[in-house]
Predict the structure.
Amino acid sequence: MLSRLRASASAHGYRSSFLSWVSEHGYARDLAERALAHTVANKVEAAYHCTDLLE
């Protein structure tokens, strides 16, 4: 994993590395996308997200 981070020192590279790490550790892609985006842009979709996805 560390070699992947060193190989790509760009915003896209960090996003790609993070998504790979999330996948390898069994986390949901929706959780990863929310972690990367910080907010839900669509107000209707945001209204239906009533959880923080944590246990």
